[in-house]
Amino acid sequence: MPDSEKTHLLEHVVLISKEILDNTRSRMVSIKLRTLLRYAYVSYKRRTTDLNAIRGLVPRVKPPSRLTNQYFYREMERTLKNNFNVRIENRRQFRYVVFYK
Asked: The whole model's pTM is what?
């Protein structure tokens, strides 16, 4: 996978995270890392940051397997930690990102 595509996708992770934080009233937001990747992938492919449109498309658009691996997830975590006040948690068998405003 080209590095430029990865960097663009990481930029979309940041954009979608900002959108989620802007559209919520609570001081803490929790989202699965996998869900965040799917939102960012749809946003990247469809060139939109409209959360309602993204949520409607997520069941139909799946990110490729080269993106759904532990290495890319760790890169996502690093990017989120650098840009936001977050904590990464393991709940049951999933990794969650907890954003704090």
From this structure: 0.90
